[in-house]
Amino acid sequence: MISDLAKEGDEICLRIYRCSAQMLGRTIAILCDVVDPDLVVIGGIYMRSASLIEAELLRVLREEALVPCKIVPAALGEQVGDYAALSV
To answer: What CA–CA distance (Å, rounded) separates 81 from 44?
Structure first.
């Protein structure tokens, strides 16, 4: 519902996505600085809402990461959670 409202331009929902993208960008920046991966694969909300998240996430990542890394969507798409649960 929040995604749908954000795509329609609802300002509160857009702020929720902007804040989520900023926190995700900061978290990935820390991961990149500590582990120095070549790329980070993201599924879930990123897959479903990339149009609402990607620009802000990449902006924060460029600002805060000391080492650059590439962000790619999970190839498994919506099934990534199913495979993650099965692997446990």
So the answer is: 7
Which tokens sit at 27?
A: 């978290």
pLDDT digits (tens, 9 = 90+) for 39-59: 998 887 777 888 999 999 999
**Lookup result for tokens 């809402």:** 49
Residues for the chain: how many in total? Answer: 88
**Integer-rounded Cα radius of gyration of the chain:** 14
CB atoms within 10 A of CB 35: 10
CA distance 78 to 75: 9
pLDDT digits (tens, 9 = 90+) for 18-30: 999 999 999 999 9
Pairwise CA distance, residues 67 & 37, whole Å? 9
